[in-house]
Amino acid sequence: MQYRQLGNTGLRISEVSMGTWLTFGTHVERDTAIACFDKAIELGINFFDTADMYNRGEAEKTLGEYLKLIPRDQVIIGTKVFGPMSDHWMNQGLSLRHIRSACETSLQRLRTDYIDLYQCHRYDLDTPLEETCYAMHNLVERGYILHWGVSQWTAVQILQAIRICEKNGWRKPVSNQPIYNMLNRSLEVDVMDVCHAEGLGLVVYSPLAQGLLTGKYSREHSPEKGRMNHPTAGNFFPTKRMTEEYFKQQDELKLVASDLGIGMGTLALAWILHKKPLTSVIMGATSPEQVEQNCEASGIVLDEELMDRIENILNNAPVDQYSGARVGYGIVKRGY
């Protein structure tokens, strides 16, 4: 396992991280969850990501049970705040009141004295940004959290938060957790560049598009035990991307992976990790075998020729609104 610096912090986290969305505390049995955690630790994963709203706290509880079985100082824990934690309208958002209450409750569920990385799960339009920034800074000052970050914020929102913190001498956000994979590259429009320039780590989720990029879904076959057919996880599956155009891309990507002697899913993760601003990919797993397969992506080197070959297959980097040219991160901008 290779490790990378999380933005401008002293934390070094594994290139492949363990996530708990739609898996642990939801439809994966406790014993299987523990086995996945054990395999992750064995393979060098040191960053575990969760959120309070994942099954209304059950994912945090599952992770908390595991934290009591291992030395706490050997793992880095990230969780999030924003989503509704009850049916009451006040029990959500990024107000000072809710952030402080939610953090204290997350600490209890995780059975830990501190959270390494506390993240704003979304941007709160109903709370002044200055209040949110102060709330996160205050948690650092109180020792409840070590660092704070954001998730799915726009480039403008991230910059505004940084400038507010700089003006007031508060602790700045150190990371961003957006969605990013071969099929969803909106991150490359401007957020990736902003995070790179401002020194924020990028820990991306859904790197395999809920399993679609593993190659196990085909024109003719959809595995019965896959996420697509699960009564809960299936609601989030990117079925709309299962087009003939995608399956043609999948055929070509499988050939690329085959030439490298790896699986298509491993290739998809390695492609993400090739992007310089990226810190880690958060993978979800329902078995120790999946954990092992995903960890193979760490340390794989894709040369420029191979990246160009993949780019030609995907042909989906963001488009410049004026020239119509592809301008995704790493693609040289050639002016008019």
Protein architecture, described:
With 336 residues, the protein is α/β, with parallel strands linked by helices. The protein has a domain at 3-208 and 277-303: TIM Barrel (Alpha-Beta Barrel), CATH 3.20.20. Helix content is 35%, strand content 13%. Strands 7-6-5-4-3-10-9-8 form an eight-stranded parallel sheet. The chain has a two-stranded antiparallel ribbon with strand order 1-2. Strand 8, helix 6 (191-198) and strand 9 form a beta-alpha-beta unit. Helix 3 (96-110) packs parallel to helix 4. It is globular and about 50 Å long. The mean pLDDT is 91.
Question: Which regions have little confidence, pLDDT < 50, spanning 5+ residues?
Answer: none
Shape: globular
Portion in strands: 5-15%
Q: Order of strands across the biggest sheet? A: 7-6-5-4-3-10-9-8
Task: Calculate the mean pLDDT score and round it.
Answer: 91
SSE map:
Elements: E1 3-5, E2 12-14, E3 16-19, H1 30-42, E4 47-49, H2 58-67, E5 76-81, H3 96-110, E6 115-120, H4 129-141, E7 145-150, H5 155-168, E8 175-176, H6 191-198, E9 201-204, H7 244-260, H8 264-273, E10 278-283, H9 288-295, H10 304-314
Parallel strand pairs: 3-4, 3-10, 4-5, 5-6, 6-7, 8-9, 9-10
Antiparallel strand pairs: 1-2
